[in-house]
């Protein structure tokens, strides 16, 4: 053990990983260890083993994953299942081999059955068929939970899992097709405003409902769950049902979200729907009572979070244009999926 614990944040340049780093830096109680994707390919077991063997890591936040919205999940199912299975298997196994006792695995609310009763309680896992547009990703995330539980049961580790709802905020992926709905709409509405376009097209019927959590709330929840006393976590969970939902407990329709994003950006034109695009899961509102009983609740209202997310998008545009000296290039175009996978620079200024 070191004076301060050495905490490895895997995926620190991503939306959530960068927010976890902000939260840990603000607390100033840990030494933070990071590696970018090009410095450490987490699907490569040999490299991951060498990293844990040499770095003396005490805790891991596993926020590295192949992540994307409904179109990306539907279009690249092989990458979504392979990358996520490999990254989590390598990180969990090699962390265990190196003696890391504490790890937090980030899953997703898409692990639950497509037609689960609402709000979705943790115990509804594996009670029904998954949503087809993201089944491979969801299967990998379910395997991630079971990986952590199995190492806990056999080796006595303390590997915990959180299942976030849909997340958004500064430092998001703004790719026009592969991103999630909020960054996609911030970009589309902004471009429509700038070009004075008469209408903005929203995918699907507008009827699906989604719950959105601001990313700094997600980071705070992650740190909260990681730091719960082992007895408190064990009392709230079960060795074979150990994951905890993280959300706001409130959802909106995609049509309502589109109206809110339009308002945030200041776009005055029409909103139209493209029914040829998939809706995905009709609704996936999380029951967040377990985490509330453990002392944590979300605090950022959607309208406020959208304002901050829009500022994050504008900062990202300044980075792309080379107008902001604080920007770091994050080499996102070097990923295995090729240069079109995502936009090459993102920024998540504190
Ligand atoms: N965003 C959301 O709405 C939600 C996210 N989650 C979960 O939260 C976690 C973080 O997601 P988010 O921050 O949004 O995702 P991002 O795509 O923003 O970040 C993921 C990070 O992981 C890195 N990464 C991906 N693959 C590899 C690899 N093979 N080796 C090394 N690094 C890799 C990425 O690097 P690079 O980009 O260079 O490849 C990136 O820095 C994930 O587990 C995700 O499933 C859960 C629910 C909702
Ligand atoms: C976090 C979660 O993210 C993914 O699931 P999802 O919840 O369906 O996420 P999404 O943000 O991509 O879409 C939400 C809704 O919004 C609609 N929608 C409208 N217009 C756009 C649009 O322009 N882009 C996108 N992406 N969606 C749009 C879209 O049709 C859908 O009805 C999973 O694959 C899985 O990875 C996962 O866990």
UniProtKB/TrEMBL annotation:
Write out the catalytic residues in the record: 137
- Provide the binding site for NADP(+): 11-17, 106-109, 141, 164-167, 180
Task: Identify the residue position(s) of the site Important for catalytic activity.
Answer: 108, 110
Q: Which residues form a coiled coil?
A: none
**One Gene Ontology term from the biological process aspect of the record:** 'de novo' GDP-L-fucose biosynthetic process
Which UniProt keywords are listed? Isomerase, Multifunctional enzyme, NADP, Oxidoreductase
Broad enzyme group: oxidoreductase
* Domain of life from the UniProt record: Bacteria
- Enzyme Commission code: 1.1.1.271
InterPro entries in the record? Epimerase_deHydtase, GDP_fucose/colitose_synth, NAD(P)-bd_dom_sf
Q: Where is the NAD-dependent epimerase/dehydratase domain?
A: 7-228
Sorted alphabetically, which SUPFAM superfamilies does this protein's record hold? Answer: NAD(P)-binding Rossmann-fold domains
Q: Which residues bind substrate?
A: 188, 203, 210, 279
Enumerate the residue ranges of region (Disordered). 331-350
Q: Which reaction does it catalyse?
A: GDP-beta-L-fucose + NADP(+) = GDP-4-dehydro-alpha-D-rhamnose + NADPH + H(+)
Single GO molecular function: GDP-L-fucose synthase activity
Function of this protein? Catalyzes the two-step NADP-dependent conversion of GDP-4-dehydro-6-deoxy-D-mannose to GDP-fucose, involving an epimerase and a reductase reaction.
Q: Which family does it belong to?
A: Belongs to the NAD(P)-dependent epimerase/dehydratase family. Fucose synthase subfamily.
Please report the name of this protein according to its UniProt entry. GDP-L-fucose synthase
| Species of the source | Massilia aurea
């Amino acid at each position: 053990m070191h004076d301060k614990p050495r905490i490895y944040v895997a995926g620190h340049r991503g939306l959530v990983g960068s927010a976890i780093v902000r939260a840990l830096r603000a607390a100033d109680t840990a030494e933070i260890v990071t590696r970018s994707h090009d410095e450490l390919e987490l699907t490569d077991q040999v490299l991951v083993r060498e990293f844990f063997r040499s770095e003396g890591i005490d805790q891991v936040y596993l926020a590295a994953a192949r992540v994307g919205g409904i179109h990306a999940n539907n279009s690249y199912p092989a990458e979504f299942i392979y990358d996520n299975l490999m990254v989590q298997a390598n990180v969990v196994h090699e962390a265990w081999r190196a003696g890391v006792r504490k790890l937090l695995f980030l899953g997703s609310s898409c692990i639950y059955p497509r037609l689960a009763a609402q709000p979705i309680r943790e115990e509804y896992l594996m009670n029904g068929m998954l949503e087809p547009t993201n089944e491979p990703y969801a299967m990998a995330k379910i395997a991630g939970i079971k990986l952590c539980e199995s190492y806990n049961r056999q080796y006595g580790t303390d590997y915990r899992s959180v299942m976030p709802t849909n997340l958004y905020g500064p430092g998001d992926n703004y790719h026009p097709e592969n991103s999630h709905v909020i960054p996609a709409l911030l970009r589309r509405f902004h471009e429509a405003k700038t070009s004075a376009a008469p209408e903005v097209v929203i995918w699907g019927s507008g009827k699906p409902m989604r719950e959105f959590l601001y990313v700094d709330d997600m980071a705070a929840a992650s740190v909260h769950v990681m730091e719960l006393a082992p007895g408190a976590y064990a009392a709230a969970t079960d060795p074979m049902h150990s994951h905890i939902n993280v959300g706001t407990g409130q959802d909106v329709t995609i049509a309502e979200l589109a109206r809110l994003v339009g308002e945030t950006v200041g776009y005055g034109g029409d909103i139209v729907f493209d029914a040829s695009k998939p809706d995905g899961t009709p609704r996936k509102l999380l029951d967040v009572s377990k985490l509330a009983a453990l002392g944590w609740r979300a605090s950022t209202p959607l309208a406020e979070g959208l304002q901050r997310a829009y500022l994050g998008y504008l900062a990202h545009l300044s980075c792309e244009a080379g107008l902001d000296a604080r920007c770091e290039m994050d080499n996102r175009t070097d990923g295995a999926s090729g240069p079109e996978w995502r936009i090459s620079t993102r920024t998540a200024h504190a």
